[in-house]
Amino acid sequence: MNNELDIDNLKKSWKEQDNSQNKYSQEELIQMLNKKSSNNVKYIVIISIIEFILLMVSLFFTSIDSDTIVRNLDSHAREIYLRNYKISQVLVYINIFISLGFIFFFYKSYRKINVMNSTKNLINNILNFRKSVNWFIFINITLGLTSFFLTGFYDFMSGFKKGIDSTTQNTLHIEKIHTPLSSPEYIFWFILVCVISIVIILLYYFLIYGILLRRLKKNLKELQKYEG
After folding, report:
1. pTM of the predicted structure, to 2 decimals
2. Cα angle value 17/23/26 (rounded, 5°)
3. To the nearest whole number, what is the mean pLDDT of the chain?
């Protein structure tokens, strides 16, 4: 009988102890989720800055290579390429300005989330940040692929021709690069390169941004439990 009373008292003590610990751990958990969210946002800011730097570097190299590509084109292809290249450059500059705007917004969001104590405001900022990152990814992919499709065939063929010319046996006799419709035998390879490039880009965004956004979503769900 005494043993049963001792067990009952022990269970009661455990329950009271668990309730006390849960109340304390809830406050700690919110702080921990705040810190985790802040770290994830920081990583996204760093990655977006690296992407911006790479975009600037690629812009420099593409402007140099364009002169070489033009020399390898016939008159019709040159006319189309120069027109598409100008459009592509405009899209790249638009992408640069948009990326700068997003990076500035990401950094502001990081500063806010890093010092925020209010659970409700923290949730709202994480929601807004996740939406902005999704828009950032969508715009980057759309502008990047559009720019690629405008000049990609000529870039691909120029590199292909350069690779053949570097060997002593130019059995394909590619003297001048024509428009895609005038070069049906190379369209298949260009399409294959496009598909591979798209898959790599999607994998990159899915793995890098996808992982961080899923972590933010998980933190968001946990925070919503303690809202109010």
Report:
1. 0.75
2. 130
3. 78
